Amino acid sequence: MAVYQLLVLFVLIGFVAFTTQNLRAYRRIPACIDQGSGTVAVLVPARNESGNIGECLLNLKGQDYQHLLIYVLDDQSDDDTAEIVAQAMVTDTRIILLHGQPKPDDWAGKVWACAQLGKQAVEDGAHWLLFLDADTRADSKLVSSLVCAATEYAADMTTTFPRQVTGTFWEWIAMPVLHFLITTFLPVNLVADARFPAVVAGCGQVELFTREAYLATGGHAAVRHSFHDGLQLARLTKRLKMRVFLCDASHLISCRMYRSGTEVWNGFTRNAYEGLGSTAALMTMSLLTVILFVLPVGFWLAGLALASSLLVWVCTLQVLAIATIRIMQARRFGHMLSILLHPLSMLMLVAVQWASYLRFRRGSSTEWKGRNYSSSGANNN
C-alpha cells in the first residue's frame, strides 16, 4: 500500500508540472485591432434560441472589426428566433437572416445548420469563417483578436473554449471540467505542430477557419454525423497537414451552455464518447481519473478515520497536489468554488463518459433542440 500511495503521489506531482506547462502553452491571446485581413463572416446557427439570440447579436454588433458580416441561420425554430433576428436587421445591415432547409436524415442538426451557413459565406466571398454558438457572449475585441492570433500563428483553424458561466449546483460541478480536461491531460504545446490528429482539441462554440482551410476540409459536410464538430473538424484539419491553433480567449468570450442538471446530463452524454473516440481511450481515462483524482481523497479521509499517520501524510500531499492543479486552473478560468466539489466533478465525469458509451452501444435515442437522434447515427425521428 505504501509503494502504491507513493507512486500515485509522484505521478500527481508530474501532473502538477504538466498542468503548469500547459497553462503557459495555452496562450491567452491579447486583445488587438486588425482591420486589414479581409471580410469575416460570423456564422451563428440558431434553433429555438429566442432566449439567447438577441443578446448574442447585441454583442456581435459591437465588434470593433470593420469588415464584418453576421449571418444567422434560423434552423426551423418553433419560437420567435427569426423575428428577433429580423428586428436586429432593421438597425444593422451587416446582419443577414437565413432560413434553414429541412434536415436530411443522415445529418446531425447543428452541423447541417453550419454547413448551410458556411456555404453561403463562401459564396459571398468571405475570407474568414467564424462559427459561434448563439449562447456565447463576445467581447467587442473578440473577432479582431482571433484574426490577429490566427494570422500571427499561421493557423488554418483557430479555436478556443469560452469562459463557462454557471448558475446551478450541477453546472458548478460539471462545467469547470472542460478546462480541467484540456490543461490536465492534453499536451497543448503539441497541438499546432504535432502530426498526430489525436493530439488536438476543438470547441464547436468557437471555430475560426480561413476560407481555404474550410474548403479543403469539406467543412461541416465532412463531419455530418457528428455531435462534436469542433473536435472532429480540428482532427480533420490536422489530418490534412494544416495547422490548428488552440488558444485561450476565455477573457473575450463566455457561454452558459446549460441551465439545469438535466440539461448538463443530456448535453454531455450526447457526445462525450465521441470525444474520446474509442473504448480503450474511455477505459484509460476512467482509470486515470479514479486512481489519480478520486481515490486520493477517499484514502485521505480513511487515513484520518483510522488515525494512520503514514497514510494521512502521503494522502495529504496527494490531495494538495490535486488542489494545486485545480487552483491554478481556477485562477485562470474562474470557478474557485468548484475546487471544493472536485470529487463530485470527477465522479460525474466518469459517469457521463460511461453513460455516453452505453447510449452509443445501445443506439439509444437522444432528444436535443426538439429533435430525436439515434446515438449510432444522426437520424431524425
Largest sheet: 7 strands, mixed
**Top-tier CATH class of the largest domain:** Alpha Beta
Mean pLDDT: 92
- Would you count the extended β strands for me? 12
Shape: globular
Strand content: 5-15%
| Helix/strand class | alpha/beta
User: What is the ordering of alpha helices and beta strands?
Assistant: HEHEHEHEEHEEHHEHHEEHHHHHEE
Number of helices: 14
First and last CA, distance: 53 Å
Return the CATH topology of the largest domain.
Spore Coat Polysaccharide Biosynthesis Protein SpsA, Chain A
Q: How many domains in all? A: 2
Q: How are the strands ordered across the major sheet?
A: 3-2-1-4-8-6-9
> From the 3D coordinates, which CATH architecture of the largest domain would you assign?
Alpha-Beta Complex
Radius of gyration: 21 Å
- CATH homology superfamily of the largest domain: Spore Coat Polysaccharide Biosynthesis Protein SpsA, Chain A
The poorly predicted ranges are: 377-381
Proportion of residues in helical segments: 40-55%
Summarize the helices and strands and which ones pair or pack.
Blueprint: H1 2-25, E1 40-46, H2 53-61, E2 68-74, H3 81-91, E3 95-99, H4 109-123, E4 128-132, E5 136-138, H5 142-152, E6 157-159, E7 163-164, H6 169-174, H7 177-185, E8 206-210, H8 211-217, H9 229-239, E9 244-246, E10 253-255, H10 261-276, H11 279-293, H12 295-306, H13 309-333, H14 342-362, E11 365-368, E12 371-374
Helix pairs in contact: 1-7, 1-13, 2-3, 7-13, 10-14, 11-14, 12-13
